[in-house]
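Hi, here's the filled form for the chain we discussed.

Project: internal
Contact: R.S.
Residues: 691
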Amino acid sequence: MLDSDAKLAVLQRATALLASSRDFEETMEHTIAAFLPVLGDFGFFDLDVGGSVKRTARAHEDPRVEAIVRPTQWMKQERTDMNLCALSTGRAAFHPQIDDAWYQAIAVNEGHLQVLRDLAFGSMISVPMRYRDELLGALTLFHGRSARRYTKDELDFAIDLATLAAPVVANARLLDQQRRITAALQTSEERLRIGMDAAQLGVWDWDVKADRITWSDRVYDLHGLARDQFGGNVEDFSRLVHPDDRGRVAQSIEAALAGGDPYTVEFRVLLPDGRLRWLATRAEVYRDDSGAPARMAGATYDVTERRALLDETAAARRDAESGSRAKDEFLAMLGHELRNPLAPIVSALHLMNVRDATTFRRERDVIQRQVDHMVRLVDDLLDVARITRGNISLVREPLDVVELVEATVDGIRPGLAAQQLTVSVDVPVRPLLVDGDRVRLAQVIGNLLANAAKFSPPGQRITVQLSSSEDDIDIAVIDRGAGIAPELLPNIFELFVQGPQEIAREGGGLGVGLAIVASMVALHGGRVAAESAGLGHGATFRVTLPRLAGAGQAAVAHSGPAPTAAPLRVLVVDDNLDAGELLAELLRARGHEVRATSTATAALAALADTPVDVAILDIGLPEMDGYELAVEIRKRWSRQIRLVALTGYGLPSDRARAMAAGFDEHLVKPVDASALYSLLAAIAAARTHFR
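And the returned structure, exactly as it came back:
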């Protein structure tokens, strides 16, 4: 049975894989990969694609088994005595104990029986994948050489994981459908050109003065008429055009006769058998010596198939955009659900530090490091999703890279010391300025240091060197640890690329930190490079940023320590009782007068009873969410109360929505205590100044 930590690890890996999928084929591969090896030694993912079933098979580190399952194809199971495939029945299949007698019972022939014996699996499950009441496909998983046996808990977890993956798979399938429709449209247009070259057009001529139209045989065919069924003038032609298109066609004719653009129009005609056909026509106007229109001659052809493909493309694009929104909502929800449980843990740690800084110091440090690691994993997952969608934006300002490096290293130094690692900094004494985003560049340096620490044994030293030229600033992070294999070095900055890991995965991580480094540096107009003499010889990671033009020795403001806040009256509203009460206790320990409630109704009642200076609101409240509560508070008390959103939703769109609802600040769980103290101190200082 999988424990909660193992399930969380599977969910994190599945989310990272699916969020990074760039096309349909990769989504199929990543979906089955997300289940292995924790939920199976091998398996396959069958997906309904336009009425046919596409199979993607994979085995975990077993080339022999993978060679057997890769060529297999899905076949609908007709058996009524045994459920073998969730795609055939729509129900989950559970076969925890399998032996040779079971093979013989399901084999359709001797060849099939031999394949089953070669695979040598002893346990199997098959789970359906549904999205919006549609059965998309199924995942069928097997335990083979590991000799494990499936449990009901693992079956239920596989069903839940398939449900989480379903929106991403459905979106990828829609995008692939749009791609195929677009390809079909291009093929149709090419066929049209070939047809035109072969004179497969209907041609016509209109004597404008006599109002007499002459059609070729092909034009009669396009309209579905016999030769004696067309009167031969403009009014007769207009009656053949669909009523909704007649006005537009008449306007095009009038514009062409008046000397405007050539007559080019697409319109529908109603055929005698009731069918609609789309026709396209193009014509030139010929004028007499006085400039009056005398003739109009043109060609007409059938564009019904092209119009149908255009309509399908538009529908597929709308569906794909809807699926993309579902994926964004899923990532936002995942970040919220992973951050929420961390908030009371962080508050409890801060409160313990305030009350007693010495008791269980080592144990608290361990918890703090693991919480910090979890927060970084969540942030990395969401950053990967933003990068793949191109949604990263920078808040640029002149920055002193010397100060930034020193501050970032100082913040990370205690964590490195806990791993028995030391870090030295070699920087010039003068400022080196770049035009950059402080948070993102600190993230770059932090990720490089975290990567160096991951692959350095205890007792080693990590060095950060800073140098510059007239145009560039170089930041080098040097470790003397595991090194990088030559074949891995060219791809080291790609998503999910990692060196070999022991089964225990002491290094941990998702393999996204260096990819984030490369993306953030590229957004700053810089470049990255990695150097290593091979395994066991350490590595150097180098970031090069463009130096701020004309910066000289200009001073850059350095942030000082957080000011001490004067006491404030604070209301905390959070439906997670642990999180709300612990945050309230933490703020009381700083001298603030704090009340805590768990619902919007109770919050409004508390505000009506006792005025406050600051209200800290969770967003995911029952009955009335935090956005609605903020709007209601603004209606009743205008701008008298400073509103702070404290939430697990951390995307830029979430911050924008909070500001639109009337919040003054937006903080993401688990909030750093010093950041919250600084915010309250600033609010207190502003209130003192304006009293």
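Let me know if anything looks off before we file it.
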